[in-house]
Amino acid sequence: MPLADTTVTTTHAAAIARLGYALSDATRTGVLLALREAPARPSDLADTLGVSRQVMSNQLACLRGCGLVEATRDGRRSLYRLADPHLAPALGELVRVVLHVDPTCCSNDGCTCS
């Protein structure tokens, strides 16, 4: 079904590919889902997602590089939020998608589905 008000361009395809890359990692996905609720500090995100602060720093750098999150200064600390207001509802729609996945099909080793 064509988009009603937008022509899809290579820029759109690149943006969706960046989002797909971001969602391919459970920690990055958790960050994006957490930030759709409210802005957060990296240390709070690390605690919530059960990862080290170094891992969180690396994942936030990746998400910034993809253009999905942005940081603002909050005193001496940073506060992260989603970079685009359209991203929160889009993530909400993705959460509503029901996928029937064979747990033995797609693992961290790659997809073995045929």
UniProtKB/TrEMBL annotation:
CDD domains: HTH_ARSR
GO molecular function, one term: DNA-binding transcription factor activity
SMART domains from the UniProt entry: HTH_ARSR
UniProt-listed GO biological process terms: response to cadmium ion; response to lead ion
Family matches, as Pfam families: HTH_5
Gene3D superfamilies recorded: Winged helix-like DNA-binding domain superfamily/Winged helix DNA-binding domain (1.10.10.10)
Domain of life: Bacteria
SUPFAM superfamilies: Winged helix' DNA-binding domain
The protein's name in its UniProt record: ArsR family transcriptional regulator
Residues of the HTH arsR-type domain: 8-102
